[in-house]
Amino acid sequence: MEDPKLPAPTPGRPLLGLTVLVVEDSRFACEAMRLLCLRSGARIRRADCIRSARRHLQVYRPSVALVDLGLPDGSGLELISDLAQGVPRIGVIIGISGDDAGAEAAIAAGADDFLAKPVDRLGAFQSAISRHLPPERRVRGPHPVSGEVVHPDRLAFREDMAHLDAVMRGPAEGRDLDYVAQFLRGIARSAGDRPLEEAAHALARSRREGRTTRPDEARIAGLVRERLAETEVI
């Protein structure tokens, strides 16, 4: 899978020399994974949608692909399936989502593993990738598993809130509420923001049950504006 000239992984940097493509539309979640890659010795490339990911893949072949299941231009499951069937296949493909129920679908689509958001624990991140690498790319012998948790810059969280604010202020007829619920749930879980997560679940529930979503939309719009005001003060 890898160029033999790549540096050997070490206990402190078990992903040394690998290139990780993160397909994730949340700036906050992506910033966490950037920090995880940095701590692990890996290089990171980012795509915020399926179309952008495909452009990246026309130019280079990453060692690892982490794909969010809910993206603005389609389902990450479609991209996972394509990557899993590619020849040559990308070495490690991992699905990520703010919905734990996505694990089964990700594996069925061809992913090697699944990480539930928040993806912020160094040891879990490293292990999810390392256990699917060929033996020559793994750290030899026993080594401690890091318990470190990374903390993304709150400015990235503000960017996500600004994006949601723009969506909620836009024309209602062009608003993809299923995407809003998924995107908000992922951010909320990554940020540990329980009110936002509850609002996302309420919107998703209203959509499933065919009820009006106007109260849910109003609640989300208000919470998003509150978060923007809070981060502006910070």
From TrEMBL:
The keyword Kinase belongs to this UniProt entry's keyword annotation: no
Signal peptide extent: none
Record keywords: Phosphoprotein
Database matches in CDD domains: REC
4-aspartylphosphate: residues bearing it: 68
Positions of the Response regulatory domain: 19-132
PROSITE patterns registered for this protein in UniProt: RESPONSE_REGULATORY
Entries under SUPFAM superfamilies matching the protein: CheY-like
Protein name (Swiss-Prot/TrEMBL): Response regulator
Organism this protein belongs to: Pseudooceanicola nanhaiensis
